[in-house]
Prior knowledge:
By secondary structure, this protein is an alpha/beta fold. It contains 16 helices and 17 strands. Helix 2 packs parallel to helix 7 and helix 11 (261-271) runs parallel beside helix 16 (393-415). It has helices spanning 11-14, 22-32, 47-60, 78-85, 94-107, 114-117, 155-173, 191-197, 199-204, 231-248, 261-271, 286-292, 310-317, 321-327, 332-346, 393-415; strands spanning 3-9, 36-43, 63-67, 90-92, 121-123, 127-129, 138-143, 146-151, 178-187, 210-216, 219-228, 253-255, 276-280, 301-306, 350-356, 371-378, 381-388. A 6-stranded mixed beta sheet has the order 2-1-3-8-7-6, sandwiched between helices. A 5-stranded mixed beta sheet has the order 14-13-15-16-17, with helices on both faces. Helices cover 42% and strands 25% of the residues. 36% of the residues are buried.
Amino acid sequence: MTQATIITIGDELLIGQVIDTNSAWMAQQLNKAGIRVARRVAVGDVWEEIWRVLDDESKHSDIILITGGLGPTADDITKPLLCKYFNAAMIVDAGALENVTNIFTNILKRPMIERNLKQAEVPDNCKVILNKRGTASGMWFEKEGKIFVSMPGVPYEMKGMMTDDVIPGLSKYYQFPHIAHRTLLTAGVGESFLADLINDFETALPSTIKLAYLPNYGMVRLRLSASGFDKDAIENKIQLHFNKLQLLLSLYLVTNEDEPMQQVVAKLLVAKHKTISTAESCTGGYIAHLLTEKAGASAYFSGSVVSYSYKVKEDLLQVDKNILESIGAVSEEVVIQMAKGALKNIQTDFTIAVSGIMGPDGGSPGKPVGTVWVAVGNPNKIVTEKFQFRFDRQRNIELTATFALNMLRKFILSDL
């Protein structure tokens, strides 16, 4: 099977200043195309280390994809290194020069300096991949039956090259197998319990189908994977086993697609032509963010009140001041009133209200850090649940959002 290595270059990746999202996205796209990613390697802006990684990975992989280090500054050493690595001479590429000139003259409307012109220079033995989204050209090299492709580290630019040029180009060189995945999401059950529940199913799986457990934030995804050159046969075979898995897990099944909880909720709302609002305290608008991160959210999401202070809870959500002062914001009574206030003022079919203590400070013996009250409902009924999370602030926020959305999902299903 054809294998690929993804190499990401930059000191900023190794010190954690920038999170490497490039290799994750690239791996997803390569997998869809039938290309197995054997390794993902991050390396700093050090000439000897980059050179060594290129040598090492070309021994194991057929395709080496590189991102980063193609800028115009002195610390961007990828292009001169590749020029030397492939025994090339640096030349000005006419197409790259036209692209850079157009960007500065017609788009940015500012003069080019000598440093900008260097972006049009490439090794003379590479195939130039024009950058439709920026100034740094991509470069395609071939050596001893291996393909090396260097792309910019800017995600938007790299994605354009991968989609338009790199994957289509690779598909002309190799015949890739079809890779099929089926993923479902469960809630309300732990990974160990799931493993016991489907033990016989897993044991009986043919060796050509792999099962993976992917736990995260109180949910567990299960993924079946298979590959082969007969697409129809692979798809039919994996679907047969996926149908069996869904039946076994029907009590805990959230969705039979590889999608997050907020997308499941959004689909429910759209299908029933219903709307939602949120009244958020401890999550600071994070639930609203999740619900609106995909285009088309206006079809089901109306608005949110981020009511961090008592005053905002009182003025915008009509929470009783006496209740706030007597029992505090992190209470069942308060989230019920927050939910009712959101339903009344934003006028939606459903709402989510949350109030809690995310940490690291602010807890007490009666209400330790991680205490969260959630209310979901409609104008006719409000249901509540108390959670006790035990992680850092960010993870507590994310868990609160996921559990609140799942509460709403179950409420909608019971209400319709």
